[in-house]
Amino acid sequence: MDSVTELEELYRRRASRDWRGRLRRALTPPVPFVMNPAEPNDFPLGRWNLYIGGAGRRVDGYVNLDIAAVPGVDVVADAERLPFRDGVFQRVECDAVLEHVRRPEQVMREIERVSAAGGYAHVVTPFCHPFHEYPKDYRRFTLDGLKQMAGELTVVTEGWRTGPTATMLVFAIEYGKLLFPWRAWRLACGGVMGWVLWPLRYLDLLLFRSARAGRIGNHCYLWLRKK
Question: Are β-strands 63-66 and 49-52 bridged in parallel, bridged antiparallel, or unpaired?
Fold first, then answer.
């Protein structure tokens, strides 16, 4: 089974409506992070908007593109070769994708190409985050590294989507799972630690205000505009 097929199977299991799927979702703890409330999200949508990497999500108002043919995905394609004409999308979302592609600079050039004049691109990437294969995991990014790939796109605003507490919690959970040799025990450990630790995530609502939060920030973001 190749990596893309494995990814498709993973999303199908997550969306399963049988009793195992329902039980799995009921036992899954809340995510160990909060979104930065200061991150802007009111840049205008147009008639056509593109969401890159939206497998497993509902993205109303967007053409949903991913490499996995799972429910909710409108176009199956490689982000390094977007199958669209130039200048068609008013807004492009690229959420936690660049770490999974072989040539992130090429993906950025494709985003620039398909963006309409005056349109916006929103790029989110991990900085301090555990290894995660969907289907591969190649790299991490700082804000400076992201801006270096902006090309002719102008940086409108930048910041941290998820903060230092998220970093500490996701690494603590992964560390706990490392202590167990059997998959069932690792799953149980992750679930228990997730339920115990998740209330701490709200500390990031304080830490987002610190200029030093990015030293161990979890995910960073850029909003870019095409001239």
Answer: parallel
Confidence category of residue 2, pLDDT binned at 50, 70, 90: low
Integer-rounded Cα Rg, in Å, for the chain is: 18
DSSP character at residue 152: T
Residues 62-116: tens digit of each pLDDT: 999 999 888 889 999 999 999 999 999 999 999 999 999 999 999 999 999 999 9
Q: Are 153 and 89 spatial neighbours (Cβ–Cβ below 8 Å)?
A: no
From the number of C-beta atoms within 10 Å of its C-beta (0-12, 13-18, 19+), residue 102 rates as exposed
- Residue 49's pLDDT band (cuts 50, 70, 90): very high
CA distance 3 to 214: 32
Pairing of strands 154-162, 75-76: unpaired
- Find out whether 125 and 140 touch, Cβ atoms under 8 Å: yes
Could you identify the residue written with the tokens 């916006």?
A: 120
Q: What is the dihedral of CA 44, 47, 52, 54, to 10 degrees?
A: 90
For residues 204 and 97, what is the distance between their CA atoms, to the nearest angstrom? 23
Angle ∠(151,155,159) on CA atoms, nearest 5: 125
